[in-house]
Amino acid sequence: MTDPDCLFCRIVAGAVPATIVYSDADVVAFRDINPHAPVHVLVVPRLHYADAAALAAADPALVGAMVSGARSVAAGEGVEKSGYRLIFNTGPDAGQTVFHAHLHLLGGGPLRLTMA
Ligand code: 5GP
Ligand code: ZN
Q1: Which of 12, 26, 113, 114 has the most CB within a 10 Å radius?
Q2: What confidence score (pLDDT) does residue 112 get?
Q3: One MF term from GO for this chain (predicted)?
């Protein structure tokens, strides 16, 4: 359930460096290398699924674990009360570029409607 050629599997394994802000048995969360907001963290499952749809089909409880992990990240980043946005980019029209499911957490100030 991991792919040695996948960037986010490699970050989860510690083979590629990242600024990890939260981890638990199910997920790892790290800062996006190209942030679109003052707080921009990616929450990824430890297991490899290409996108949120594949993940939801195979393991819906893991989707819940990602949202729970995001809540912990928000608390750690101090944006739990000010608010934050969660985004799954899924497939080409959404601009998905990394094909290991990931949840964007954006916050730290007023957000525009899109992250483009
Ligand atoms: P997507 O467009 O697939 O939803 O988002 C992928 C995200 O991964 C992008 O926001 C991009 O900046 C981020 N990203 C790509 N490569 C790396 C990397 O090597 N390290 C980190 N921390 N983030 C990355
Ligand atoms: Zn992967």
Answers
A1: 12
A2: 83
A3: catalytic activity
